[in-house]
Amino acid sequence: MDVHNQHLSHDSKQAEVVVIMVPFPCYSHLNQVLQLSCLISSYNIPVHYACSATHVHQAKLRFNGTNRLSFAQIHFHEFPTPPFLSPPPDPNAPCKFPSHLQPSFAASLHLRDPMVQLLHKISPTAKRVVVVHDALMAYVVQDTATIPNTETYTFNPTCTFSSFFDGWQMMGKPFQLDEPQELPSLEGCYTSEVLNFFTLQTDFLKSTSGTIINSCRSIEGTYIDLSKELQVDKNKKIWAVGPLNTGAVDDGRNSNSQHKCLEWLDKKAPKSVLYVSFGTTTSLTNQQIKELAIGLEQSGQKFIWVLRDADKGDIFAGDVKRAEVLPEGYEERLKGVGLVVRDWAPQLEILAHQSTGGFMSHCGWNSCLESITMGVPIVAWPMHADQPKNAFLVTDILKAGVVVKQWAELQEGVVASSTIAEAVKKLMASREGEEMRKRAEKLGGATRKAVEEGGVSRMKLNSFIAHITR
User: Fold this and answer.
1) Residues 273, 192 share a domain
2) What residues make up the domain containing 267?
3) Do 402 and 390 share a structural domain?
4) Contacts (Cβ under 8 Å, ≥6 apart) of 204
5) What is the DSSP secondary structure assignment for residue 110, as one 8-state letter?
6) FRET label pair with 312: which of 231, 343, 393, 450, CA 20 to 30 Å apart?
7) What average pLDDT score do residues 40-56 get?
8) Assigned domain for 135 exists
9) Alpha helix locations (H) across 133-249?
10) d(Cα 173, Cα 449) in Å, to the nearest integer?
């Protein structure tokens, strides 16, 4: 999305509104809120981005937007990083929800006091203070209710389909609904601590003035409409302004420091490479890494595999590298066929590259949106949280991907190399896979169009800006 200043007259009202953005301290949430901050800033509205110092640094370090002008204009506020002991990622934990992330939930609650101080500092400087907070930070911003010129809006960084059905299931299916066949249950998705944290936010979410979501009507319009059914106040507005990441990429060719994997992709045929990555919150067991390695080799397909452990709560605390677990001689044997990347990789650029033809993914919402936007079909391998339902949306509703295994079966243990090879071949080298790719490309076109001038997401963003500057 480009700069939208031309849409709004430079009247005095604009300078009278200040926006404070409050992300949840976890990478996928931080990045989306920063992307949204840039968009709001591009309307010439002062934007403040506030989180713990460690997480502000992380958001800046990994920011992948072309909207550098707006990025430079954002005021960053670094709160003291709360003390939290983050254990190293445990791939062998019985529940796949990352135990090393749980301290982040507790630590986020400590941000309430510095948040109040910031609100009291900024509120006298503006006629209206607009607080846009991650849905998981409602507790932290609860004191906005005591400041007269402040109004709050919830930002939902997850898939509407997933958040709707998760909410519906958690509430005990409060109303009749045509439930999609084989919709994944909540079993194994969250720990009890995380569910308690969600419950803590619920009361404070009731006082918000509306919800912004990182989604798009072309992907899940039906569920955006349905999500109003779970709102206490059915009249509250929902602005679907996503995807927030488009325009952040030009397939990497014009960047000064092109990543080695993009040079590797340049030498491959169009749509011939499978990109394999499980995001920032997943660590596979050593046994699963071996099965995946053998499965990729058996599939006979070219691939780029980002093989790294999940982020720790503090990514700057130094990496504890796991002992090498790939089969002996693996990379030498697959030279030119497979590339293993052990550090941070430019996912958007890889997905946008013409040689990329598929994405094996954990189906975090960021990854799903990026893949759909770039027209790349998915081999879905969900791990926890909203991912099983995100995967279901991609494979069963949008029909733009294939599952490695059904969610219930995935919880039974290690996925065999033969199962992995079969799923990869189905997506990358079958007529059925070709149909999925066509559907993904069609969805990608509609999604990119949505954020352009006159597109449905752009108009929703304009509507939100008009609402807060009224």
Assistant:
1) no
2) 260-447
3) yes
4) 138, 139, 141, 142
5) G
6) 393
7) 95
8) yes
9) 160-170, 192-205, 217-226
10) 35
